[in-house]
């Protein structure tokens, strides 16, 4: 009897343990990462964005947070975003890797605050480039769409970072190739080559050309210089400022002493 | 009182002031400094720049009676007015220049006798072969041209040439620059040093040929060069047997401008070659004086070939000594466009690789 109870307890304990493990793993699959304080998103949009974020967290170990607000409480956008991130303890791993996407309706700002490894994954170029992706949706009032694009770009940036070359000024992100212009240049060049070739053929058709020189009729040893003088007159120096390509990520320190990268803009 | 000479900066035209620190004249605007000596030299140079050239040729009209040939026949074309001379046995049936058969023949006396002649070395057969060879490699030639184009007339003509000898005295001023490029972390710099280079000297030319026939196309005759002067001999009427001769109707004096042009161009080119070590050299001023100019009346052998294609006459000339063929062939418009479109399309197709991969 005692033995039966023991086995039962053991089975119960195992079941409980399994349930606990299952519970924990279930909880870890569904972090709540969208804080729509300005109520710009519908419940279903929030859910969908949240699912996308959880997918990134589990796939790449990058924390992603989306925050909307009506008031910055007297702070700048960057301070507000940095503090929100630091004070709520976001971030994965020792470095607290992750980023926060803030939409503020106070002055219609958006801001991306990066921390830990995310600073290197999101270069100054990358953040500036992101503006092209998200700003127009936000301007149109399509906040869910803007956030969706933010998540897409984020996933691409992280992928490139994991592959060793984050998107930067020397490694552009999906620069849309201007095929029309390229084809136009190719066409002009092709016609130019064709025209030069045919005109060369055409010039062969007529070899009756006047002689402009008499170099063949120079009397032997008759060429003599009697005066040869080179006189330096003056110099002119011009200088042109170099165009510099900025690379990498710039950082700043938040009020809690944490190092953040990031940037944003108006919409 | 100091001398009241005020110098202008050769670079920017600003007034130069004495800089006691540098012990030189300095420009406040462009930061150049000059020594007094340097400024005088620059001024000297600029004031002596002229472009007048003196071309003195000791050329006279060649009408001396003892220099004339007797017993000649002149064949005058009633269509184009071209005149051609032959010895008393010569017969002309068609005009060498326009192919017209209406020829009037007269006995003439007093045809000027040339000093020298280069005799024919190549015969009629060689001229025909050379014309076939001339068609080779001409991609735009109409396909039917070579088969349907018949040689209507082929004539060996001694063409009158003036051979000009002269000594040229040249003085040329060049504007030259040296360019240096360098960079620091913030700027790209370009430093251009401006120089004036003066070259004076002499150069002699001998036997520059200029044709003395107004009927012969100048470009054709120029293009026949070069002739090998080693085979040039004293003139004898015997050389004319079986060939025609063209009478000169452009005398030596009238031919001088064409010789001058070539002397001037060649002298400038030759002198320019001595301005070395610069990144750019531009002739600013050039004066070429010709002295001891002389012209000799000579006859050069030319095969004239007249052909007809689709009702149009095409004329070719062959150097009767070297075999060099000169002429203008018709262009097939269809082939022109076919090649233009074909080559362009091929290049465009290859360029697609660049369009899509880069």
UniProtKB/TrEMBL annotation, chain A:
The keyword Transmembrane helix applies. Residues 241-267 are annotated as: Disordered. The chain crosses the membrane at residues 179-201. Residues 1-26 form the signal peptide. Residues 34-153 form the TPM domain. Keywords: Membrane, Signal, Transmembrane, Transmembrane helix. Pfam families: TPM_phosphatase (PF04536). This is TPM domain-containing protein. It comes from Hespellia stercorisuis DSM 15480.
Automatic annotation (TrEMBL), chain B:
It comes from the Bacteria. This is Replication restart DNA helicase PriA. It comes from Hespellia stercorisuis DSM 15480. The lineage of its organism: Bacteria, Bacillati, Bacillota, Clostridia, Lachnospirales.
């Amino acid at each position: 009897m005692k033995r039966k109870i023991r086995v039962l307890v053991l089975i119960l304990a195992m079941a409980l343990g399994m349930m606990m493990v299952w519970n924990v793993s279930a909880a870890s699959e569904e972090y709540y990462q969208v804080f729509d304080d300005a109520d710009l998103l519908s419940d279903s949009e929030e859910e969908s964005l949240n699912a996308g974020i959880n997918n990134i967290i589990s796939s790449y170990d990058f924390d992603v947070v989306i925050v909307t607000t009506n008031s910055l409480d007297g702070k700048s956008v960057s301070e507000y975003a940095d503090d929100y991130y630091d004070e709520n303890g976001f971030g994965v791993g020792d470095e607290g890797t992750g980023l926060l996407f803030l939409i503020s309706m106070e002055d219609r700002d958006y801001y991306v605050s990066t921390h830990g490894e995310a600073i290197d994954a999101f270069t100054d170029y990358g953040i500036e480039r992101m503006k092209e992706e998200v700003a127009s949706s936000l301007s149109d009032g399509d906040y869910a769409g803007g956030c969706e694009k933010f998540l897409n770009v984020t996933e691409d940036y992280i992928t490139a970072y994991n592959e060793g070359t984050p998107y930067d000024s020397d490694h552009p992100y999906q620069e849309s190739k201007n095929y029309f212009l390229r084809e136009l240049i190719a066409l002009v060049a092709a016609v130019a080559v064709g025209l030069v070739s045919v005109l060369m053929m055409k010039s062969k058709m007529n070899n009756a050309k006047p002689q402009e020189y008499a170099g063949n009729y120079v009397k032997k040893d008759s060429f003599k210089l009697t005066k040869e003088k080179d006189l330096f007159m003056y110099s002119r120096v011009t200088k042109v400022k170099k165009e510099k390509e900025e690379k990498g990520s710039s950082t700043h320190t938040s009020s809690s002493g944490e190092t953040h990268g990031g940037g944003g803009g108006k919409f | 009182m100091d001398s009241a000479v005020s110098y202008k900066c050769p670079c920017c035209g600003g007034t130069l002031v004495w800089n006691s620190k540098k012990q030189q004249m300095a420009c406040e605007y462009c930061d150049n400094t000059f020594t007094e000596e340097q400024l005088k030299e620059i001024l000297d140079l600029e004031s002596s720049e002229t472009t007048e050239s003196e071309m003195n040729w000791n050329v006279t009209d060649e009408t001396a009676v003892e220099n004339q040939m007797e017993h000649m026949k002149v064949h005058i074309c009633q269509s184009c007015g071209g005149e051609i001379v032959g010895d008393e046995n010569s017969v002309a049936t068609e005009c060498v220049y326009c192919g017209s058969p209406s020829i009037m023949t007269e006995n003439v006396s007093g045809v000027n006798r040339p000093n020298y002649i280069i005799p024919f070395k190549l015969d009629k057969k060689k001229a025909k072969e050379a014309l076939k060879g001339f068609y080779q490699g001409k991609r735009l030639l109409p396909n039917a041209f070579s088969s349907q184009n018949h040689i209507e007339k082929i004539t060996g003509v001694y063409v009158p040439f003036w051979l000009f000898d002269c000594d040229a005295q040249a003085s040329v001023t060049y504007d030259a620059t040296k360019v240096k490029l360098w960079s620091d972390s913030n700027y790209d710099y370009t430093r251009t040093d401006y120089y004036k280079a003066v070259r004076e000297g002499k150069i002699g030319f001998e036997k520059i040929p200029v044709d003395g026939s107004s009927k012969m196309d100048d470009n054709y005759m120029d293009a026949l060069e070069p002739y090998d002067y080693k085979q040039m001999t004293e003139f004898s009427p015997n050389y004319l047997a079986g060939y025609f001769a063209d009478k000169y109707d452009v005398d030596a004096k009238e031919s001088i401008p064409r010789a001058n042009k070539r002397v001037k161009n060649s002298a400038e080119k030759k002198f320019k070659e001595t301005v070395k070590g610069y990144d750019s050299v531009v002739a600013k001023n050039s004066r070429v004086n010709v002295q001891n100019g002389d012209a000799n009346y000579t006859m050069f052998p030319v095969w004239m070939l007249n052909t007809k294609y689709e009702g149009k006459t095409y004329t070719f000339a062959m150097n009767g000594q070297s075999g060099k063929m000169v002429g203008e062939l018709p262009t097939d418009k269809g082939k022109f466009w076919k090649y233009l479109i074909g080559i362009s399309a091929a290049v465009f197709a290859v360029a697609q690789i660049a369009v899509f991969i880069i």
